[in-house]
Specification:
alpha/beta, 3 helices, 5 strands
């Protein structure tokens, strides 16, 4: 079972993880509170990776570096590289599927990235 980490302050709890799901939202986002519950449920699912909830207003630098232009956005990082991305409203099943994709090869990657975003490995 994995855990959900609310990213607060300057720490980068995902920096040492080989696989992590970053979920970007904001306090003003209407689905933000639902997203947190979905992230907790997804993190508890079998085979899940750690989930980090990231507030785009507090961590604008990270959001910019990962080219997050819409919230909510979920990005699966494997060994520090973007493996998958999902943009828009999503539930626990969607986040769990992204989390489980950490073990999938590059061929399983869906091309749902905005123009100019990093390609899957």
């Amino acid at each position: 079972m994995s855990s959900v980490v609310l990213v607060d302050g300057d720490g980068a709890p995902w920096a040492s993880a080989s696989r992590v799901l970053l979920v970007f939202s904001a306090a003003w986002c209407p689905v933000g509170s639902l997203l947190r519950a979905a992230a907790e449920e997804a993190a508890a699912s079998p085979g899940a990776v750690p989930v980090c909830l990231v507030d785009v207003d507090r961590h604008a630098d990270l959001a910019e570096r990962l080219r997050v232009v819409t919230v909510p956005t979920a990005i699966l990082l494997v060994d520090g590289r973007e493996r998958r991305r999902r943009v828009g409203a999503m539930g626990a099943a969607d986040l769990a599927a992204l989390s489980r994709a950490a073990g999938a090869g590059p061929a399983a990657c869906r091309d749902r990235r905005p123009e100019g975003a990093a390609r899957c490995p």
